[in-house]
Amino acid sequence: MSALATRWSCARCAVWVGRLGGAESNLPQTGSSDEGESYCLSCSRTRAAELAGDAAPDSISAEDRMRLKRRAIIAFEIDRLPAAPNRTIASACRTSSKTVAVVREEMLLSPASTGLAEAHSV
To answer: What pTM did the predictor assign?
Structure first.
């Protein structure tokens, strides 16, 4: 897939975006791409949560699995917009600024533990 396209389509939900008049453009800043496929922001968040859930051991509770997925979404947003204030990330993820601060600190201490580096590239 080239860096420019007339229209970008999400590989998961098939929503598409393009410029009026059909001019070529880069993948939108809210989009992500992985293994040659492009994804909208909503599907990118969902994929981050699914990757975290799939990587979790089968023995954890449903509540703990949901907590892992929520943290993965927060980590995805921090990775996507590292300079954004915690309140901005919190608003996007429907959580508290304190929760975002905790996840951000965990990411600084152990960047490989989020597992999102491979799941998000623009």
So the answer is: 0.77
Of 71, 83, 72, 80, which Cα lies nearest the Cα of 120?
A: 80
How far is residue 1's CA from residue 115's CA, in Å, rounded to a whole number? Answer: 24
Longest dimension (CA), the chain: 53
Residues forming a β-bridge with 121 = 33
**pLDDT averaged per 10 residues, the chain (length 122):** 69 84 76 86 94 93 95 95 96 96 93 48 38
pLDDT of the residue at 118: 40
- Helix axis angle, 62-80 relative to 41-55, nearest 10°? 130
Q: Which amino acid is at 69?
A: K
- The pair of three-digit structure tokens given for residue 26, joined into one six-digit string: 């880069």
- Residues paired with 34 in a beta bridge: 37
- What gap in Å lies between CA 119 and CA 32, rounded to an integer? 9
